Amino acid sequence: MDRAFHALGDGTRREIISMLARSGAQSANQLRAPFNVAQPTISKHLKVLETAGLVRREVAGRVHLFHLETAPLQQAEDWIASHRSFWEGTLRRLDQFVGAMDPEDGTS
C-alpha cells in the first residue's frame, strides 16, 4: 500500500490512472499525448505505477499496452475509510470544544 500511495502522490500519475479508468488500455504514446514530456519521462511514471501494482503491461509485438489494476486502489480506499470515522469524530469533538469557548477570553 505504501507504493500505491507514493505512486498516487504525483499529479501526472494520477492523471494516467484517470485516463486508463476512462478509456481502458492505452499505449505509452497514447498516455504521453496530453503531457508535455519526453517518452523516457512517461516511461518512468509508468514504471512507478507498475511497481505499485496500479497498472499492468501487456506486450503485443512492439506495442506495450497498459491496463488499470484496481485492487491496490481498493486497498487504499479501505484504509482511508477505516480511518475516516476516527478523524471525523476527532474533528467533531474539536468543533464542540471550540464552540464552548468564551469568546471574551478564549476559555470555556
Largest sheet: 3 strands, antiparallel
CATH architecture title of the domain at 2-69: Orthogonal Bundle
CATH topology of the domain at 2-69: Arc Repressor Mutant, subunit A
Q: Just give the CATH class of the domain at 2-69.
A: Mainly Alpha
Strand content: 5-15%
Instruction: Round the mean pLDDT to the nearest integer and report it.
Output: 90
H/E topology pattern: HHEHHEEH
Described by the principal axes of the CA atoms, the overall outline is elongated
Number of strands: 3
Helix run count? 5
Radius of gyration, in angstroms, nearest whole number: 21 Å
| Residues in helix, % | 55-70%
Relevant CATH superfamily of the domain at 2-69: Winged helix-like DNA-binding domain superfamily/Winged helix DNA-binding domain
Structural class: alpha+beta
The quaternary organization reads as: single chain
Stretches where pLDDT falls below 50 for ≥5 residues? none
Give the CA-CA distance, first to last residue. 42 Å
Strand order, sheet with most strands: 1-3-2
Give structural notes:
The protein is of the alpha+beta class. It has a domain at 2-69: Winged helix-like DNA-binding domain superfamily/Winged helix DNA-binding domain (Arc Repressor Mutant, subunit A, Orthogonal Bundle). Helices cover 62% and strands 13% of the residues. It has helices at 2-8, 11-23, 28-32, 39-51, 71-99; strands at 26-27, 55-60, 63-68. A three-stranded antiparallel beta sheet has the order 1-3-2. Helix 1 (2-8) packs antiparallel against helix 4 (39-51). It is elongated and about 70 Å long. The relative contact order is 0.14.
